[in-house]
């Protein structure tokens, strides 16, 4: 591999595309495809004594350190996770776990007294008396007790010097009872998720079940089963991460902006990397870890993706598609087959406008993600893509006992006409809880987008499936009514949900934890408050304090305050 790869690197360096990082913020000229795609370090969340698998306790720290995002960019100060300062990485290590085997994690904060990025005291934010960076880790897609969920109010600063009002546990227990799939961990501190993730506090987490997954014969092992963590970032020419310190409505929010878009695309912590691949099938677990950027991915040679899973679940059967739209925080698990390609340098491209879908078209730098360079010679490839993968009980409207309307709308500044805050049902995190589902139940949530943007809807604990997307008519009338009365019944929502029905894409029809809510539509989702594999009740008390949250996963929206409490109650 090493010899073959170096020969090829020499060949394609000559064809590297040179591009200027455009925009007001960044400096320098960064050539694309000069750094190899890093392999993210792996940490096992279990002991394996010759096939006997036992629970493990991990200590994972958050460190400030320097990270090299590109050959030609000076080192960048980042906040990153790792089992030690020297091994801490952007993104953090892949935590590998086994279904049914608990992983305990003590998350430790070694961050300095001040943040590396600007923050905004005018939004609801974790505020410290003694300085420090408030953090709290959340396992996205995880089904576990609320104590270990990384509640926004459960933050803590370095060495637990200060604790948020909902802090309660030094060590988190992830029981990994749920089905195998792709999760990720990231920071969730109150009003600081956009800065803490931008700084680097995120990493992949996998739950495996070899007894169920090995027979599928999918591409496996560290070479052929890989994570691609995509994140857009802007940099100053000295390497520092750039985030605008002036809000779009500074008279209300001195710093907050509605969406962060970086002008460089990084994959596994390198800007526009390349990966040398064998003529073989590869499994890529693609995570969009951007704050706000949607990705519309395709290959430059028109090659297909075979989608096998979305978020933390497999699809029932593989779906072949030539493009994937990835919202922030969304995961697609795909197989890509390089065996028959004639073209040997293949770019992974992105043409999603930002904000999505009505914003600025992707310009040259951000329209490229990474490059694959295919080695010559055939490779023996024992992997297959099976015709059926895994089935879970279906999402059925008739199982639902409660129907809720969840409306998303923003409040505009009277002068600038840009958002001041973006709320769910016109309410804030600190307003009394209104979503109190019964544990074990199924509910229908109709999510109405009355904004111009697509919002990735995410709930903690619950898994859900979109079953219908319908366009709204006279949305402006509904919006005006809701802004005044905040009551879907009084605003006669039914009269507005009469537009065209849009199909949910085949490759998103599984139990997910992020669903894209398109602008001007009502998306109907089935929310399950139990274990989706067998409809069994949660194996723990899901009603315990401090409860869960659901929110938009555009981090800038979540922070101000497109987030609401979700408290389960007993049957
Ligand atoms: C990098 O440059 C920016 C803009 O000039 C400056 O604010 C920042 O302090 C610099 N960072 C370092 C580490 O020098
Ligand atoms: C930062 O945002 C403000 C408000 O939108 C804008 O006026 C300013 O130009 C931005 N600064 C830079 C350097 O882009
Ligand atoms: C990544 O996620 C962000 C927000 O979470 C979204 O705006 C962006 O479009 C996503 N990118 C892709 C490629 O899906
Ligand atoms: C969590 O914090 C909020 C905000 O301070 C507080 O109102 C609530 O009582 C806390 N919940 C628990 C269970 O401590
Ligand atoms: C793109 C789009 O359809 N946006 C709509 C979102 O909803 C608001 C309110 O209904 C409309 O004004 C937008 O046109
Ligand atoms: Cu949003």
Automatic annotation (TrEMBL):
UniProt-annotated location(s): Endoplasmic reticulum membrane
Family annotation (Pfam families): Cu-oxidase (PF00394), Cu-oxidase_2 (PF07731), Cu-oxidase_3 (PF07732)
InterPro entries given in the database record: Cu-oxidase-like_N, Cu-oxidase_2nd, Cu-oxidase_C, Cupredoxin, LPR1/LPR2
Residue ranges annotated for the Plastocyanin-like domain, each copy included: 135-210, 262-339, 425-565
Cofactor(s) listed: Cu cation
Gene3D superfamilies, A to Z: Cupredoxins - blue copper proteins (2.60.40.420)
Signal sequence coordinates: 1-23
CDD domains cross-referenced by the UniProt entry: CuRO_1_BOD_CotA_like (cd13844), CuRO_2_CotA_like (cd13868)
GO MF, any single term: oxidoreductase activity
Keywords for the protein's UniProt record, in alphabetical order: Copper, Endoplasmic reticulum, Glycoprotein, Membrane, Metal-binding, Oxidoreductase, Signal
Family: Belongs to the multicopper oxidase family.
PANTHER family: MULTICOPPER OXIDASE LPR1-LIKE
Record's function text: Multicopper oxidase that may play a role in the maintenance of inorganic phosphate homeostasis.
Protein name, per record: Bilirubin oxidase
Organism: Zostera marina
């Amino acid at each position: 591999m090493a010899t073959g790869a170096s020969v090829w690197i020499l060949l394609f360096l000559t064809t590297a595309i040179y591009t200027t990082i455009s925009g007001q913020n960044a400096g320098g000229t960064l050539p694309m495809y000069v750094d190899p795609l890093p392999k993210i370090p792996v940490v096992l969340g279990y002991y394996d004594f010759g096939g006997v698998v036992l629970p493990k306790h991990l200590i994972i720290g958050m460190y400030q350190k320097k990270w090299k995002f590109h050959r030609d960019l000076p080192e960048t100060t980042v906040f990153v996770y790792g089992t030690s300062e020297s091994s801490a990485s952007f993104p953090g290590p892949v935590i590998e776990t086994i279904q049914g085997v608990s992983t305990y994690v003590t998350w430790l904060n070694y961050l300095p007294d001040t943040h590396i990025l600007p923050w905004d005291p005018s939004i609801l934010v974790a505020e410290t008396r003694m300085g420090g960076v408030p953090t709290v880790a959340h396992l996205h897609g995880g089904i576990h007790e609320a104590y270990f969920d990384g509640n926004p109010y459960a933050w803590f600063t370095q060495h637990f010097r200060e604790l948020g009002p909902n802090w309660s546990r030094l060590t988190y227990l992830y029981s990994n009872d749920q089905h195998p799939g792709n999760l990720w961990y990231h920071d969730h501190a109150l009003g600081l998720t956009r800065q803490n993730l931008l700084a680097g506090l995120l990493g992949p987490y996998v739950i495996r079940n070899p007894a169920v997954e090995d027979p599928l014969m999918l591409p496996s092992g560290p070479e052929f089963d890989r994570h691609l963590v995509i994140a857009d970032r802007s940099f100053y020419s000295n390497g520092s991460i750039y985030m605008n310190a002036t809000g779009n409505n500074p008279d209300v929010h001195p710093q907050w902006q509605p969406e962060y878009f970086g002008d460089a695309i990084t994959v596994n912590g390198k800007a526009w990397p390349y990966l040398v691949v064998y003529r073989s099938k590869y499994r890529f677990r693609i995570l969009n870890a951007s704050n706000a950027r949607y990705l519309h991915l395709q290959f430059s040679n028109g090659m297909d993706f075979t989608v096998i899973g979305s978020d933390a679940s497999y699809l029932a059967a593989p779906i072949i598609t030539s493009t994937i739209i990835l919202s922030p925080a969304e995961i697609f698990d795909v197989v890509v087959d390089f065996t028959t390609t004639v073209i040997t340098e293949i770019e992974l491209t992105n043409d999603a406008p930002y904000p999505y879908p009505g914003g600025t078209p992707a310009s040259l730098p951000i329209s490229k993600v990474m490059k694959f360079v295919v080695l010559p010679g055939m490779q023996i490839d024992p992997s297959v893509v099976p015709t059926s993968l895994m089935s879970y009980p279906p999402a059925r409207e008739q199982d639902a006992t409660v129907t809720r309307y969840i409306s998303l709308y923003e409040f505009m500044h009277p002068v600038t006409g840009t958002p001041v805050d973006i709320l769910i049902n016109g309410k804030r995190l600190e307003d009394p809880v209104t979503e109190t589902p019964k544990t074990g139940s199924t509910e229908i949530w109709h999510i109405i987008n009355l904004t111009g943007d697509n919002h990735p809807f995410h709930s903690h604990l619950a898994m859900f499936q979109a079953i219908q997307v319908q366009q709204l008519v006279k949305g402006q009338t509904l919006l005006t009514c809701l802004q005044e009365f905040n009551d879907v019944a009084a605003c006669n929502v039914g009269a507005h949900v009469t537009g065209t029905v849009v199909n949910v894409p085949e490759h998103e029809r599984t139990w997910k934890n992020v669903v894209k809510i398109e602008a001007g539509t009502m998306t109907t989702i089935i929310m399950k408050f139990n274990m989706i594999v067998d409809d069994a009740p949660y194996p723990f008390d899901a009603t315990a304090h401090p409860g869960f949250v659901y929110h938009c996963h555009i981090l800038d929206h979540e922070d101000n305050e497109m987030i609401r409490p979700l408290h389960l109650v007993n049957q």
